[in-house]
Amino acid sequence: MARIGFIGLGTMGAPMAANLVKAGHALAGFDRSPAARAAAAGRGVPVVDELEAAVAGAEAVLTMLPDTPDVEALLAGPDGLAGRLPAGTLLIDTSSIAPAAAQRLAAELALRGIDLLDAPVTGGPGGAEAATLAIMVGGEPAAFARARPILEALGRPRHMGPSGAGQATKLCNQIVVAQHLLAVAEAITLARGLGLDP
């Protein structure tokens, strides 16, 4: 079992962190929002009030943040984790961010001996709760092998290729999701036009 720092305890992150705890991992969770920390603690997630406490001594750090700028600020900003994590740390970003940003961050972190995997997820809050997320992973195969036991507590991880490939796969997935939504909307419009109860 791994010592994990988990950053981002929102709608997706809190149940994901709870599932890692249930799987037996030693975890410290952090979120900037006191309300999010309290909600995660209510799920049985050990939470801390400072980012530094979440990552101290962690073999792996997982992030679940809203967007590219949030991940960049956390990892590469003036006080970013890139300068505070020791070499050998495994960093798994489950946020959905730009593939180019994932590639750039992975290259920067590699210079410090830190492996970054881009590992966006799909399945929504229900999948996060049930630990059935599809996890699309980009990065070095050896880093993926290290991450696999952690990711399997969250769902079904699949290695898609080098850095950025996980985020690229998520973009493809979102096109499919959008097309399904569009098809449903068109079907409802057609049904109404033909006098059906949608």
What can you tell me about this protein's structure?
By secondary structure, this protein is α/β, with parallel strands linked by helices. 46% of the residues lie in helices and 19% in strands. It is built from eight helices and eight strands, in the order E-H-E-H-H-E-H-E-H-E-E-H-E-H-E-H. The chain has helices spanning 13-22, 34-42, 51-55, 68-76, 99-110, 124-130, 141-151, 165-193; strands spanning 3-7, 26-30, 60-63, 90-93, 115-118, 121-122, 133-138, 155-161. A five-stranded parallel sheet has the order 2-1-3-4-5. A three-stranded mixed sheet has the order 6-7-8. Helix 1 (13-22) runs parallel beside helix 6. The longest helix has 29 residues, at 165-193. It is globular. The N and C termini lie far apart (50 Å). 44% of the residues are buried. The mean pLDDT is 96.
Please render the helix and strand layout as text.
Blueprint: E1 3-7, H1 13-22, E2 26-30, H2 34-42, H3 51-55, E3 60-63, H4 68-76, E4 90-93, H5 99-110, E5 115-118, E6 121-122, H6 124-130, E7 133-138, H7 141-151, E8 155-161, H8 165-193
Q: Can you summarize the main beta sheet? A: 5 strands, parallel
Strand order of the largest sheet: 2-1-3-4-5
Summarize model confidence as the mean pLDDT: 96
From the N-terminal CA to the C-terminal CA, the straight-line distance is 50 Å
- Measured by DSSP, the beta-strand proportion falls in 15-25%
Order of helices and strands: EHEHHEHEHEEHEHEH
Number of strands: 8
Number of helices: 8
Whole-number radius of gyration? 18 Å
Q: Name the structural class.
A: alpha/beta
Q: What is the helix fraction of residues, given as a range?
A: 40-55%
Which stretches of 5+ consecutive residues score pLDDT under 50?
Answer: none
Q: What best-fitting shape do the alpha-carbon axes yield?
A: globular
